[in-house]
Amino acid sequence: MVRQMAGDGVSLKQIVRLTGLSRKLVRQIVRGEREDVFRVRQSSLEPWLPRLEREWSAGCRNGAELWRRRRTAGFGGSLRVVSEWTTRRRRAEAALPATGGKCPPARRVARMMTTARHHLSKADAIAVFRIETAVPTLATVRDLTERFAEMVRHGRLEQLPDRLKETKTSVLASFAKGLRADPKAVAAALSESRSNGQTEGQINRLKTLKRQMYGRANLDLLRARLVVVA
C-alpha cells in the first residue's frame, strides 16, 4: 500500500501522516529494502485535516481546543486522535532547522532539485522543501524536469509534443526551443536503439589520459596508450 501511494504521487510526509509509520520505515518500503506488509487504515480525522491545518497556521496550537471546535462542527472522533495529530505537527516543526544561514551554492541546489526525493538525506529534503516553498517556480520546474527525464528514459516519443508545450511558458523555454530547432535528431534519440555512447566514452577516455600526461609525456606516448596494436 505504501508503494502504491508513492506511485500515485503522495509525498513522503503525507504517507507518514496517513499510515502512522515512521519516516525511515516508509523510505525503506519505497526503496524496496523491505516488504510493504502494512495496511493503511482510514483515519476519522482525514476529512478535517484542511481545517485543522488552517487553524494551526492561524495560531491555535492547543489539541483540546482544536478537538472542541471539531466536535461542534460534527467531528465524531476522540480527543486522543486530535492530540496525536498536534503532537506530530509540533515534532515536524521542531525537526526543521532555524531559518537563515548561508544559502547553498546554485550547483548544489540544482543537484538536490534533480535528485529523486527518496534518495535525499533528511537535511537535503528539508532544504528542498524550503526552496520549493519560497520559490514555487522551482517546484514546477522540478516536476517538468522529472517528466522530461522519464520520457527520455523510456523512449516515449509520443509524449514529446506535450512536454514541449508544457515548457513553453516556463523557465525551461530556452531548453525547449533548442529541441524544436532539430526535431529529427530529438525524435531519433527517443526512438532509435543505437546511440553515440561508445564514441563519447572513447573521447572521455582520451581527454582523461591527456590531462594525466600533460607536461610529462609527448603525443607518441599518448598514441601508444590509446591505439591498440593489431
Q: From the structure provided, what is the oligomeric state, counting identical versus distinct chains? A: single chain
- Mean of residue pLDDT? 78
Tally of helical segments: 14
Radius of gyration: 25 Å
Name the shape in a single word: elongated
The share of residues in helices is 55-70%
Number of domains: 4
Largest sheet: none
Distance between the termini: 58 Å
Low-confidence region ranges:
37-41
Which series of helices and strands comes N to C? Answer: HHHHHHHHHHHHHH
SS elements, strand count? 0
Beta-strand percentage range: under 5%
Secondary-structure-based class equals mainly alpha
Detailed description of the structure:
By secondary structure, the chain is an all-alpha fold. The chain folds into four domains: 2-95, no CATH class; 100-128, no CATH class; 135-195, no CATH class; 200-226, no CATH class. It contains 14 helices and no strands. Helix 5 (63-73) crosses helix 6 and helix 8 (122-134) crosses helix 9 (136-154). The longest helix has 19 residues, at 136-154.
Present the secondary structure layout.
Elements lengths: L1 H6 L4 H8 L3 H9 L17 H10 L4 H11 L5 H17 L10 H9 L7 H13 L1 H19 L5 H7 L6 H9 L1 H9 L5 H17 L5 H8 L4
Helix pairs in contact: 5-6, 8-9
Which tags fit this structure?
single chain, 230 residues, mainly alpha, 4 domains, 14 helices
Quick recap of the structure?
The chain has 230 residues and is mainly α. Helices cover 66% and strands 0% of the residues.
